[in-house]
Structures are given as C-alpha cells and as structure tokens.
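Service request form, structural biology core

Requester: graduate student, group of Dr. S.
Request type: structure prediction, single chain
Budget code: on file
Notes: please return the result as structure tokens.

Sequence provided:
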Amino acid sequence: MARCDEGYRCEVCGRDVEAITESDLYLRYVLGEVPLEMLHLQPERHIACNPGLAQYIVGENFPPVACEGPFDKRQFDAEYRQAEETRVTRGWRRLLQIPTLGLSIAEYPLLVTPEE
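Core staff response, request fulfilled:
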C-alpha cells in the first residue's frame, strides 16, 4: 500500500502501515463504516493503534487490545459486546483474506446477512 511516494503513515504511531491486513482504514471499509469514495481522504492507522475498534477482535493470531476509558467494551452490556466482537472479528478475518481473493476494491466490504 502506498500513497504516492510517502506510503501510508499511521496517524497515531507515525510508522508505515505496510500491509492491508494491518490497516484500520481498510478494516473499517470492509465493515462498511467508510465509503469507497472516502478511502483516500481518511487518516490511516494500524488496527492496534485504534483500541476502540481493535478491542473487539477475538482471534488466536490477534493479541488482545485494551481500550481504557468510556469506550472500554467491558463497560457495555454482554449482548452488545458479543455482537461487536462477532462483527469486527468477521471483518478482520475478511481483511486477512483479501490479498488472496483477487477482488476489486469495491468487492472488499462484507455483505450483511439477514441473521446479523
């Protein structure tokens, strides 16, 4: 991923976001939170540099992230917390698959199924 010659820099830590699989911006896009036409206008971060979202990823290959303060998932009811963990983890798994799927960028977002 490269934005011109500068690359994508994380607005939090300042390091390069070197792969789509570590991109908070693309995770939010996959989840339907960022429209396609806004991708180039939004700031980039590593997933772990956005603890408000990263705390909901539950996976063996993703170290738990704590979000201190009012958005700590432990402060929300269990039903909401579980729904967000399911939604965000599903998006993260999709993000990990994208490099091997041969999709156009417009096909990255998850489709919402009736049971969700």
